[in-house]
Amino acid sequence: MLGVVFGVGSVVAMLAVGEGASKEALEQIRKVGSNNILINSVKSVEEEAPSTTRVRMSVYGLTYNDFDRISQTFSTIKEAVPVKLVREEGRLGERSLELRVVGTTPAWFDLVRRPIIGGRVLMPLDSINKAPVVVLTEFGARRLLATRNTIGQDIRIGGNSFRVIGIVMSEKGSSGGIQLPDQVVDAYIPIEVAKAYYGDTSIKRTSGSFEMKRVELDQIILEVTRMEEVERTAKGLEAMLERFHDKKDYVMSVPLALLKQAEATKRTFNIVLGSIAGISLLVGGIGIMNIMLASVTERTREIGIRRAIGAKKGQIITQFLIETVVLSTIGGIAGLGLGVFIPLLITYIAAMPTVITPLSIILPLVISMGIGIIFGLYPAARAAEVDPIIALRHE
Questions:
Q1: Which of 120, 287, 315, 357 has its C-alpha lying 20 to 30 A from 41's C-alpha?
Q2: What is the rounded average pLDDT for all residues in the chain?
Q3: Residue 183: what pLDDT?
C-alpha cells in the first residue's frame, strides 16, 4: 500500500508543481507582453575588446533608421516604441536620486502597461511641443517628492527642469529570463526632449582616460498584431538587422519563445516525475496483489463455504475486486494527503508557487482505484477457480 501512497502523492505533487510553474511563467510573460519583441543595443565583441588609447570612441547599437525601417516594413507590427536611456541625477531641494531617464513616446505606456497612480502619462502633444514634462515611478516619487506636492512639482534632472505630470507603478528585475523594460528608478520624458537635452553622445571619464559612446536608440519595443505572427516577425527582424549592421551590436528578446521553452521544460519535468510516480504505483499494485493472493490462500475454506451454499464465480470475483479497490482507494486517499502536503512544503522552503487543481485531486484517486481493479483481477480469478470440495477440506 505504501507504493500506492507514494505514487499518488507523487502524481498530486507533480501536477501541483507543474501547474504552479506554468501559472508563474504565464504571469511573467504577461508582464513583458506575450506579443512583444524587445531589441536592445549592446556593445559588439569588437567594442568590448580592451584598448590602450586614452580616448576611445564607440559607435554601436540601434539607429533611428532602424526604427523607421522596422516601423514601415513589417505589416505584422501593430506598435513600435523607440527608447533612449540616459543616467542622470534627479534633484528636488536636498533630496536626490539617480534616475534612468527614459526618452520615449506615449505608446510606451500601451506596450508596458502599468497602473497609473496619479496624474497622466505622456501625450502626443508633449512630443510635438517638446514639453519638459516627466512621469515618475512610485519609487521615484516617494524618494524625491516626499512631503511635497506631487503632480505639478518641478524637479531638476541632469541640470534641466521638468514638471511632474504623472506617477505610475513599475516592476523590477527580470521576468521569465527577460529583463523587464521598466525599472523603479525610471523617469519618462518625451523622446524629442531627450534628444535635445542629452543628445546621442555621452562621455565617461575613468582613471585618466575618456570613453565616448554614440548610441542613437538603446531599445526598440515592438508589439505584433497576433501571437501566431511573433516568431515569423522576429526572424524577419533578425534578417533585416543583420543586413544593415556590420557587427552584432544588438540583442533580440522574444518572450513568447521563452514561454515555449518553459513549457517544453515543464513537459520534460512532468515525464520524469510521471515515470517515478508510475514505478511507485506499479510497486504498490504488485504489493496489493501479493496481499490479496495471501488472503485468498488464508480464506480458502471461506471461499469453499460460499461456493457450497450457491455463490457463483462472478460473485467471488466481485467480492475480492471490491476488497482490492477499497484497499487501493484507502492508499490513494492517504496519498492525496501526502500529495497536498508536499506542494505546501515546496512553497514554504523554496518559495516556488504551486497550484492544486480539482483535476490533480480526482485524477490520482481514479488512478489508485484503477490500480486496485487491475492488480486485483488475478487474485480474484484465482479465488473463483478454487474447487469447493477441496476448499472445504482446507485447514
A1: 120
A2: 82
A3: 86
